[in-house]
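Lab notes, practical 5.
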Amino acid sequence: MTEGDEQSADARRMMHEQNRRSWNAVTPAHNSHKRDQAAFLRDGGSTLFPEELELLGELRGRRLVHLQCNCGQDTVSLALRGADVTGVDISDRAIEFARALADEVGAPASFVRSDLFDWFDAVERGEARGGFELAFASYGSVGWLADLGRWARGVARALAPGGRLTLLEFHPLVWSLGPGGALTGDPYFIEAPLREAGGVNDYVREALAPSGFLAGDAGFENPEPAFSFQWTVADIVQALLDAGLRLERLREYPYANGCVLFEGMRALPGRRYAMPEGTPALPLMLGLVARREGS
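Output from the prediction step:
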């Protein structure tokens, strides 16, 4: 590694650590809006959407790692469908909540608090479990990662030969859209990281509460800034190809699952949201499956 590479690695770690602080700060506010999630899940509820289940395929008995699992609701939902699931997330507060939720539900999910890149390194050294049949990441995951190539290589190492990554993500184009769907947001092509002065926001106020919404901490303001990254569709796909994964499925969807991304979105059945009335349909979600070669 050259001196420049070491400096870049230090900068990436600094940004990830700042993001950890920002996620720690916002996590209690997020959970303040969610009505009794344990009861919801115990009673047969699920936080997973049909698009995710379609791309994931059979779950029962499969070894699955949930990357950037946040507070574990989806992780627990995967475990309740029979997956042997491990959730990994950088936020201490989110992992604490996830472990408590799994215990309260009685779901056999395990959780690891780690920067994802550190966890990938631990897998490569044999210090953390690898050999997963499935890896899963969704909704606002890759935009917090400072190095997409390192992410893709880490995913490839964590998968067993023949294992598959399933990614459901908000389409990168949505960050260019403002109120009413106008092109007033960030440019699609941005090379530098974006410093979010307001940190990770309380996006759960925008409908992300399948167990039922509570007013909770309605006035939360995050004191910790955060760093985000604009990766295009080409960036994501090329990183996976460069890591030796084979792209099997690529989907775009004209709606977003569970989240109002900008003012004026039109509600659809099933907790989905589309472009406003009178505006052209645009891709609001991206889905893909990529496989590690071998058997």
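Observations recorded by the TA: Residues 3-32 form the longest helix (30 residues). The chain has one domain: 13-292.
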